[in-house]
C-alpha cells in the first residue's frame, strides 16, 4: 500500500469528494496538506466527512515564513513518508520548497494543473522557469485539452500527462434529474468578480426581456462585486425578473439546478468553471463563454449547450430566444448529451488518473538538478 500526499490550498466539497473516492477505491494511505486554511476565496461549508488524513500548514507572522515552511514540510515528510506527492500548482513558496526537497529525497512529484496558455499575458522568462520546474515532475494530471497543451508547450511529455483533474461528484447531482419541475429561469452560479462578467449578462438579459423573452434570471454567488451588481440590476427595466441570491452550499444548489432551464457562465477569463460540471451532471444544458477552460472539452460540439463570445450581447440574446423555442424532444436530447459528456469527468476517472500517474511516476521517476536549483532559488528570492 502506497503512502501519497496531496497539497491543496483549502479542502472544499470538490476536493473532499475526490479524496474520499481515491482513498477508498485505490487502497492508498492518503494524506492531504492544506497550505492556506485561512483562505476565504470560497465560503465552503466546514463539516466534511473525511476518509483520509488532513493536515494543516499553519504559519504565524512572528517567525520567518521560509524557515517555518522548511521545518513543517520536513516534519510532515518524516512522519508520513510519502512514496509520491501530488502538488497543486507551482506558484507558491510551499510548492517551490516541495519541488526542491523532493529532488533531494528522490520522492516523485505529480503536478496538478488546470492552467491554460490563453487568458493570461505570458512572460518568456517566467515560462522558461516553469519549464525548468517541470523537469523535476514525473507525471501530471490536468483539467482538459487546453491545460494538457500548455504543459506540452512548456516541454512536458504527453505520455506522462493524465486527465481529468477538474471533476465533481456527478452522482450527487444526478439525483436531481428525475425531479425537474419548473424550468422557468436562466441560472448563473459564480463568484461576484469583474472577470465573471455579470453586468454583460444582465444587459443581455434586459434586451432579451424587452423582446418578450419568457425566462427569468437567477444569480447565485458572493464576492467583492456583489453591491455593484445589485445596484446595476436595480437600474434595469426587468429588475423584477432577476433574483440575486447569496452563496449556497452544495446541498442547497441541487434544487436550483433542478428547476432551471439553462445554465450560463459568461466569464471573460476562467481556467475551467466547475459549476458547469455541476450543471451538466444535473442534465442542465449550458451557455459557456469561449474564454472558459471547460468550453473546449464540455461544450464545443454544441450538443450540450452553446458557446458564446463574452463581449457579444446580441449573440447571447439570440441564444436566450433560441432556448425559448426549443421543443421538449430537442431539450431532452441536450440533457442526455450533457450526461454522456460529463460521465468522462467523473470521480472514477479522476481516481484512474491518480492510479495511472502513480504507476508512471514510480516506473519513470524524474529528478532534475535544474529543477532543484530553480525551485530553491525561487523559494529563497520571491
Kindly describe this structure.
The chain is α/β, with parallel strands linked by helices and 382 residues long. 45% of the residues lie in helices and 15% in strands. The chain is built from 15 helices and 13 strands. A 7-stranded parallel β-sheet has the order 3-2-1-4-5-6-7, sandwiched between helices. A 6-stranded parallel β-sheet has the order 10-9-8-11-12-13, with helices on both faces. Helix 5 links the parallel strand 6 and strand 7. The protein starts with a strand and ends with a helix.
List the helices and strands and how they pair.
Elements: E1 3-8, H1 13-25, E2 29-34, E3 53-56, H2 65-80, E4 84-88, H3 93-105, E5 109-113, H4 124-134, E6 139-142, H5 145-153, E7 161-162, H6 170-174, E8 185-189, H7 198-210, E9 216-220, H8 226-234, E10 242-245, H9 250-259, E11 262-265, H10 274-281, E12 286-289, H11 294-299, E13 305-308, H12 313-325, H13 328-342, H14 347-363, H15 369-381
Parallel strand pairs: 1-2, 1-4, 2-3, 4-5, 5-6, 6-7, 8-9, 8-11, 9-10, 11-12, 12-13
Helix pairs in contact: 1-14, 2-3, 3-15, 4-15, 7-12
